[in-house]
Amino acid sequence: MKRLADKVALITGAGRGIGAAIALAFAREGAAVVLAELDIETARQTAELIKTQTGGRVLAVQTDVTQSASVQRAVSEAERAFGALDVLVNNAGINVFCDPLTMTDDDWRRCFAVDLDGVWNGCRAVLPGMVERGAGSIVNIASTHAFKIIPGCFPYPVAKHGVLGLTRALGIEYAPRNVRVNAIAPGYIETQLTHDWWNEQADPAAAQQATLDLQPMKRIGRPEEVAMTAVFLASDEAPFINATCITVDGGRSALYHD
C-alpha cells in the first residue's frame, strides 16, 4: 500500500530543488500532486518528468505565493482537477541576505512577502476546507535559520523564525479539528541554489569544501531526504505529530562550536 494513496497534495515552489523532490516523492507514494510554481515552464517540465517516472496524476499551476488571490486560484484549480486537498506543503522561498543597516525597505518586504506571507497565504487558502472536513496536514518548509543565526544572513532568519511561530500557532488552533500543522527545518541541502552560492565565491571548490567540513556527516543533505520527511508528516503514519518541527541537517545544529 502506498503511503499517500488517494491523497491530494499541493506543493508551492515545486518546479525545482526541494519542492520538486517532494512532489516526486508524493507522486511515488500515490498522491495526486499539484505543482504551484511562479515559473510555470519549469513547473510543467517537472510535472512531465514526474508523470513519466510515476504514471501519477500531476498538475502544474502558475502561482505567486505573495498574492493571496493567486494562491486561492491554485487551490481551486487543484480541487477541480483532483478533489479536496488533503495536504499542503509550503515550500516556496527565497534567500535574502543583507547587512541590517544597509538593507533597503524593498529587500525587507521581498523577504517577508515570500518567506512568511507566502506561507500564511497557503495556510489561509486550504484551512477552511480542511477544518470543514475535519482532516488535513500542512507541512511548512522552514530552515535551521529558524533557530540558529549566521551573521550576514539578515533578514532571512527573522522570516523563518516567523514560520515556526505560525506553524505552532496554527497547529494548536486547529488541533481540535484534526488538522495538523508541522514544519521541516533543512540545513545545508544540495540544490541549485547551494551550487550557485558556491560558484559566486572567489574559489568555488574551496567554498564547497569548507561547507562540507562543517558537517558532522562530512556531506550535505539531498533534496529527497527532506522529501521523505515530508511524506511521513503528510501521511497517516504521523497522526499525533502536530505543531512541531523536524530538523534535517545531519546534526549540524546540535554542535556548540566547530
From TrEMBL:
Enzyme Commission code: 1.-.-.-
Pfam families attached to this UniProt entry: adh_short_C2
Keyword Cell wall biogenesis/degradation among record annotations: no
Family matches, as InterPro entries: KR_dom (IPR057326), NAD(P)-bd_dom_sf (IPR036291), Sc_DH/Rdtase_CS (IPR020904), SDR_fam (IPR002347)
Top-level taxon of origin: Bacteria
Keywords: Oxidoreductase
MF terms (GO), sorted A to Z: oxidoreductase activity, acting on the CH-OH group of donors, NAD or NADP as acceptor
Residues annotated as domain Ketoreductase: 7-144
Matching NCBIfam families: PRK07063.1, PRK07231.1
Family statement: Belongs to the short-chain dehydrogenases/reductases (SDR) family.
UniProt-listed PANTHER family: SHORT-CHAIN DEHYDROGENASES/REDUCTASES FAMILY MEMBER
Protein name listed in UniProt: Oxidoreductase UcpA
Organism: Paraburkholderia domus
